[in-house]
């Protein structure tokens, strides 16, 4: 059986919401005003409180209360913008991601995948196919159960160095000792060079390779 996962372009927008912590003052400006009135009503007539001082305190408190409210509103705006950028995929540009799929672009003389075997195999053949479906490179793969990294330097089986930018698909043929197919999956990794919203979906571009944002498994580096 061939382990070959086609990159999906059906995107499900994911939203990352940053949580903001708001500080509680423990007393509102209304409470402060009420306390001030109570104190003025119950003050010592022979030693009255300086009204100007009280008003200064009230103005100062009101100003602080307003600044706190503005700060919280700005925090909410920042969170909204951050969430929107994440859901649109803009935050991924310039970052290296790992995503479910089998097709990626040759970037800087390298194309990187991982393949996972659900059980131990007897024979594993790794094939790299070009955009026409032609096998341009083959080698024997790791037959152990689990996940294995595979990096290709863009040199074909004929010894020719292929140009950057081309799309290549990883196909893994794995069988066990009984000759039965071993199931598994593949992932791709690469530098996100752009984001496409043209069809109303969020698709990340690794060169010419299109990766649905919902297929992203992890961000490897920036």
UniProtKB/TrEMBL annotation:
It holds the Pfam family FLgD_tudor. The keyword Zinc does not apply. Transmembrane segments: none annotated. Residues 90-216 form the FlgD Tudor-like domain. Keywords: Bacterial flagellum biogenesis, Cell projection, Cilium, Flagellum. InterPro entries: FlgD, FlgD/Vpr_Ig-like, FLgD_Tudor. Coiled coil: none annotated. It comes from the Bacteria. One of its GO terms (biological process) is bacterial-type flagellum organization. Residues 1-25 are annotated as: Disordered. Residues 105-177 form the FlgD/Vpr Ig-like domain. Required for flagellar hook formation. May act as a scaffolding protein. Belongs to the FlgD family. This is Basal-body rod modification protein FlgD. It comes from Roseibium limicola.
């Amino acid at each position: 059986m061939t382990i070959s996962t086609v990159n999906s372009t059906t995107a499900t927008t994911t939203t990352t919401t940053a949580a903001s912590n708001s500080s509680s003052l423990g007393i509102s400006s209304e409470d402060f005003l009420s306390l001030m009135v109570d104190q003025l009503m119950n003050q010592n007539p022979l030693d009255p409180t300086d009204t100007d001082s009280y008003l200064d305190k009230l103005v100062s408190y009101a100003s602080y209360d307003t600044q706190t409210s503005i700060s919280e509103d700005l925090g909410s705006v920042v969170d909204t913008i951050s969430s929107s950028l994440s859901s649109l995929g803009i935050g991924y540009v310039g970052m290296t991601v790992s995503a479910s799929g089998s097709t990626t672009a040759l970037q800087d003389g390298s194309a990187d995948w991982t393949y996972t075997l659900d059980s131990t195999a007897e024979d594993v053949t790794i094939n790299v196919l070009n955009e026409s479906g032609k096998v341009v490179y083959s080698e024997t793969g790791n037959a152990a159960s689990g996940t294995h990294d595979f990096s290709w330097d863009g040199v074909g089986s004929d010894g020719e160095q292929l140009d950057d930018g081309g799309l290549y698909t990883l196909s893994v043929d794995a069988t066990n000792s009984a000759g039965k197919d071993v199931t598994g999956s593949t992932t791709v990794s690469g530098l996100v060079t752009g984001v496409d919203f043209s069809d109303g979906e969020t698709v990340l571009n690794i060169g010419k390779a299109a990766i649905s944002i919902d297929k992203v498994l992890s961000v490897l580096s920036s």
